[in-house]
């Protein structure tokens, strides 16, 4: 699995448990540093948008 996909899947899981999850928690659970997080997403808002797009994509295909 690519790092970006792993961050995204981690965020899906964490945001499902707590919608106020932040970058530090996502990065820690994904096993990366915050600097690496920012290589893939500019902000938590961008990550949330990617999570929403992923959810829409999965609901369309199922």
Automatic annotation (TrEMBL):
InterPro entries, A to Z: Homeodomain-like_sf, HTH_TetR
GO MF annotation list: DNA binding
Domain HTH tetR-type residues, every copy: 1-59
Organism superkingdom: Bacteria
SUPFAM superfamilies: Homeodomain-like
Entry keyword set: DNA-binding
DNA-binding region: 22-41
Protein's UniProt name: Helix-turn-helix transcriptional regulator
Organism: Nocardia colli
């Amino acid at each position: 699995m690519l790092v970006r996909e792993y961050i995204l899947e981690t965020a899906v899981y964490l945001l499902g448990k707590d919608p106020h999850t932040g970058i530090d928690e996502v990065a820690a659970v994904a096993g990366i540093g915050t600097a690496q997080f920012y290589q893939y997403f500019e902000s938590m808002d961008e990550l949330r948008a990617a999570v929403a797009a992923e959810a829409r994509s999965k609901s369309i295909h199922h």
